[in-house]
Amino acid sequence: MHEKLLWFNPNLQYVFNSNIVEYDMNAMSVSISEKYGLLDKEIINQLKLLPKEDRTVKMGLLQRADPEFSKKLLECELDTRNKFLELNHLDETNVLSLHNDACIFISRKKIVSNIEGVKFKHSNTWSSYINLKGVELFYADGAIEYKNIPKEMLMKHTLGFNKFFCKVFEKMEDNDPSILSYLSKFQTKYLQDKLPQYYYFPFGKLGDYKTYNLEITSYIANMVLKEMKGW
Fold first, then answer.
1. Burial class (CB in 10 A: 0-12, 13-18, 19+), 95
2. Which neighbouring-strand residues pair with 176?
3. How many CA atoms does the CB half-sphere of 138 hold within 13 Å?
C-alpha cells in the first residue's frame, strides 16, 4: 500500500451510505520539490507562475532530462503521502484507493491537511463506491464519477451501463429490496438481446461484450446479496 503509486484495497471493493472523501496534494511536483530542495529556488519560482497545464508539461520535461531528479521526486512524494496517511490514522481499514498524490478514504473526522508545509486539499466527497476490476465508481446525489476508464469508452455508456449503475446505487442506498427483481429482469433482457444497443458495448475493456458485461452483472448481483444480509 505505502510503496505503490496506484493501489486498490482488496478488502473494500464496495461501500454504501458512507462518507468517502478524496484529498490530494496541492501542486504536488512544485510543493515536493520546494520542501525537499530538489530544484533551485529560481526554477521553483518560475514553475509557480505557470498555469497548471504548462507547469505539468515543464515538470515532465525536467524529469525526462534528469532521471535522478525524477526518482527523488517519486520517493519524496510517497514519503509525504505516507505521512498524511499516518497522521490521519488511515490504513487498510478505511482507505479505498491511492492514486499518485491522491488518497481516497472513509472518514468523518477532521483531517490534518498540512504535512510539513505540503498541503493536501479536499477535492471530492461521495456516499457510495464500487470497484469493478480496477474501474472505480464513486456515487453521490444521483451521479457517478469514474476513475481508471478511458473517456472515449465511458462516453459509449452514458445511456447504457451508467444508467444501470445509477439505479443500483440508488436502490442500495435506500435499502430497497426491489433491487433483486430489477437485477433479475435486467439480466434476462440482456441475455435475450432485448435491451437498447448501447448496453452491449463492452464496459471497461475491449473484448467479447456479452461475456465480460455478464461478469459485471453477476458481480453486482453477488455484491447485492451479501449486502442485503445486513439489512
1. buried
2. none
3. 17
Q: What is the pLDDT of residue 58?
A: 94
Provide the pLDDT confidence category of residue 89 given band limits of 50, 70 and 90: very high
The residue with greater pLDDT, 202 or 25, is 25
- Beta bridge mates, 122: 23
What dihedral angle (degrees, nearest 10) is formed by the CA atoms of 30, 34, 39, 41?
110
Q: What's the mean pLDDT in 118-129?
A: 97
Count of residues for the chain?
A: 231
User: Which of 117, 123, 122 has its CA nearest to residue 32?
Assistant: 117
Supply φ then ψ for residue 189, to 5 degrees: -65, -35
- Decide if pLDDT at 174 tops 90: yes
Longest dimension (CA), the chain: 65
Question: Sheet containing 118-126: which strands, arranged edge to edge?
Answer: 6-8, 95-99, 102-106, 20-25, 118-126, 114-115
Q: Cβ of 4: how many Cβ atoms within 10 Å?
A: 9
The rounded distance, in Å, linking the Cα atoms of 68 and 54 is: 22
